[in-house]
Specification:
heterodimer, A: alpha/beta, five-stranded parallel β-sheet, two-stranded antiparallel sheet
Chain lengths: 209, 119
């Protein structure tokens, strides 16, 4: 999993990055907010899905990075964590309001970091599965054939006029627009009508002879 | 704040080990960085105090506080936090005395780190 660490303090960034690498994360380190934003908005295969951002950074503060990511990519599946000092409790509220998913107090506790990253990974994988499900449903919906509205039908032959203005047999019209299929047979009233017509035809022929 | 100072350790090696998840190479790298960066930060703080620049004091003291925290160097961290607070409150008249305390703590910490680093 790709993780972005953004901190202008090289000691903090090194400890954090190395701790994450010990856990086999693929870590990128940047030292200012604008650069962090560039990485997060890149939308490529190497775009990190989890970011740990220091609050105080040159060019753009961590909370502003969160705000911009949420504004520009509202649907992106990205877990953002802010690093803040113990005495900056007001930062926590402002940071979460700005779009951060979680926060860590500096200096981070390695065990707490691990636990909070596990939460992040759980949220990311849940969102991934939901996104997959939504896309499955969308493609299923696209394949559902629609049959509704007012249909012009000939009162005699029962052909239906389609949007292309051609008159089509009712069977082919419905088959094209739904999953219904037709098996042809003759219903009892039509069968007796047909029998009557055949008898009449025979009788008229025998009379003629 | 004298009571707090007693509780502040110059350098807590056990805590530093926990912070670096037992990674000796990482500890050496961090100590090396701190030995390079700390004197620079302290000079920035000194210049800010001398020049009466509260904003510069906040930013340089904040940076030193952050680095010292990762080294589990509570005493330097505490003095840096005090200086950062003075800067935020624009009370720079109290800063020179605080800076003296920071200088003493830094000297003690750097000696301790060189000792650990050389081992």
């Amino acid at each position: 999993m790709k993780v972005l660490v953004a901190d202008d303090d090289r000691i903090a960034a090194t400890v954090l990055a190395q701790t994450l690498r010990q856990w086999e994360f693929d870590v990128t380190v940047v030292s200012d907010g604008a650069e962090a934003l560039r990485h997060l908005l890149a939308q490529g295969p190497s775009t990190p899905t989890l970011a740990i951002l220091d609050w105080m950074m040159p060019n753009l503060e961590g909370a502003d990075v969160c705000r911009r990511v949420r504004l520009e990519m509202p649907l992106a599946n990205m877990y953002l964590m802010l690093l803040t000092s113990l005495e900056s409790k007001s930062h926590i509220i402002a940071g979460l309001d700005a779009g951060a998913d979680d926060y860590l107090i500096k200096p981070f506790d390695p065990e707490e970091l691990r636990a909070r990253i596990n939460v992040g990974m759980r949220v990311l994988s849940l969102q991934d599965r939901l996104a997959e499900r939504v896309s499955e449903l969308q493609s299923a919906l696209a394949n559902v054939k629609v049959l509704h509205g007012l249909l012009p039908i000939c009162s005699y032959c029962k052909r239906i006029r389609g949007d292309d203005q051609y008159w089509t047999q009712v069977e082919s019209y419905i088959a094209e627009r739904s999953d219904a299929q037709f098996s042809h047979s003759i219903c009892p009233p039509c069968a007796s009508e047909l029998e009557r017509e055949i008898d009449e035809h025979r009788n008229s022929r025998s009379r003629d002879h | 704040m004298a009571g707090d100072d007693v509780a502040r350790a110059v350098f807590d090696f056990a805590a530093f080990e926990r912070q670096t998840s037992g990674d000796a190479a990482l500890r050496a790298e961090i100590i090396q960085m701190f030995l390079e960066d700390c004197p620079v930060r302290v000079e920035e703080i000194r210049a800010a105090v001398a020049g009466g620049n509260a904003a510069a004091l906040v930013s340089s003291a904040h940076a030193l506080k952050g680095s010292a925290a990762y080294l589990s160097a509570s005493m330097v961290r505490g003095h840096a936090a005090d200086l950062e607070r003075l800067g935020r409150e624009s009370r720079l008249t109290d800063a020179p005395a605080m800076l003296e305390q920071l200088d003493a703590a830094v000297a003690e910490l750097l000696a301790e780190l060189r000792n650990v680093h050389g081992r």
